[in-house]
Amino acid sequence: MQFETTNLDIYGHDPLPWSRARDALDGFAAEPGKPVFLSTCRPDGRPHTAGVGALWLDGGVYIVSGPSTRKSRNLAVNPACTVTFSLPGLDLVIEGDAAVVTDTPTLERIAARYRELGWPVEVDGRAFTAPYSAPSAGTPPWQLYFVTPRAAVGVASAEPHGATRWHFG
Predict the structure, then answer these.
(1) Number of structural domains found in the chain
(2) Does the reported pTM lie above 0.90?
């Protein structure tokens, strides 16, 4: 992955290496105590933020959402979004574009990962179904999205401190 690094730190710290963020994300799955937030833009331009179940795999973020939810309706009009993580020692915002995943091999692979984590999800056509999901997810089937990172901002909350923006090319 090629990227440009911009040091945002005003206190003289070195830029944070992307490897710090990448290593913190490796195998990440949202769970209680490890929340993830998705921010989208409503058609009238107002922001919308919601907690989401998220997985970091394949160099990006997988999220699940019902097609009737505000976040899915927003993404259908404008796929640009941010996904926010509070990782050990690093707060991270991924900026990217979300796309609905419909290919069966990817759906099956991600469903298997969710089952490993305790969510009994199954592939149903080009989406997911399960006996339950988040209270705000709407009724099944739920769509799987992949957020392709375009840029990220990391702010270290532990040594070594710093603030950095990475733009992926």
Answers:
(1) 1
(2) yes
